[in-house]
Design brief:
Blueprint lengths: L17 H9 L2 E2 L2 H6 L2 H11 L6 H8 L7 E2 L25 H13 L2 H12 L22 E12 L2 H8 L8 H13 L2 H4 L10 E9 L4 E12 L4 H19 L7 E11 L6 E2 L6
Antiparallel strand pairs: 1-2, 3-5, 3-6, 4-5, 6-7
Amino acid sequence: MRIYRFEGIDESLPLLPLAARRALDAVGLKLGLRAWQGLPLEQRRALVEQGGLASPDLGAVRAAAAGADPAAEPIDADDFSRLAEPPDPTLADAWPGLDSLARFALAHLVKRGDRRRFSEARQEICGSLTHLDETGAARMVDVGEKAITHRVAVAQARVRMRPHTAAMVRDHSGPKGDVLATARLAGIMASKRTPELIPLCHGIALTKAKVSFDVDAEAGLVTVVARTEARDRTGVEMEAMVAASISALTIYDMLKAVERDMVVEEVVLLEKTGGKSGRFVREEPPR
């Protein structure tokens, strides 16, 4: 079960955890406190467990809410977990890496206007990911007390071009030389200089930086995948994303004499592991 510390709810579930609220919202139902407490513990646990999933099983949620007295009320609920943009500016840094329940919990508290609980929730859920202090001023996060763990991040970027240009990449026949070899070197070098490029990033001693490519000449698409690793107190997501970005821009630079209307498409984090927040895997594939 996913129950946050700031909720102050023990395993006997006397109150509705945010996970249960998310599960009920997913099927457009609302339970009052008396109805919640009247449900058997197994059904309350099932609602909490469903609310912690990336995609709750709607049938299982309805079954778990069945028999409530008073009966669950129908509502028009917002699916906060699908918000693309954070509901509060102080969540901007952490939002892309939050899972569905975390997004729901924070957005729910923002909507309620409960700033005290929102502040507690942000601290617990986002931890030291936020680069803003209590006044909203930018700061460099103190990671001195965090544990040293194995950190891994994988990011992706795409460069879209005409098929004949992509064929030049595939055949290593670009006008400025081997496009992929140069882009690979650029990405690896850039990953090591991330703190110079992104404000407030920590300097990390990378143990691995790898850039690979997939060239689909027919589709006119070059996909860049960057993987970074370190044993450190903070993550290597930005290093992977910088590597993917600079590799993609280098591909553009190497080929701009052939085609100037190439497009560097969305740069995304695919996966990260290590640290307090654990593993993140992108739920939806890039477009």
